[in-house]
Amino acid sequence: MRVSELRKLILDALDDAKARDAVVLDVRKIAVFTDYMIIVTGTSNRHVVAVADSVIEKLRDRGRRPTGVEGMEGGDWVLIDFGDIVVHVMRAQTRDFYNLEKLWSEAKRLKR
User: Which CATH class is domain 3-101?
Assistant: First the structure.
């Protein structure tokens, strides 16, 4: 599966789960562990977990499994690692606090 197809599938799954404020960062020139980061907001801990579950399930249906998932037990911030793409699903307060967009401000912000 090409990275562009993977990115579209993830974004579609995030939309279906009603994730908010999706940002796609191209980090290929500044990170060695992934090519893209997708950062989204969930409205509550329960919603964060549901969004992450939705992404994992929809991609599993297409034959793609994450190499790692962290944070499902707390629901404050769930990280889903698909290798080429890392997805961060966060509550609004957590996203504001960690401000990954600023931390990775050298990354190119992509349009969906």
Answer: alpha beta
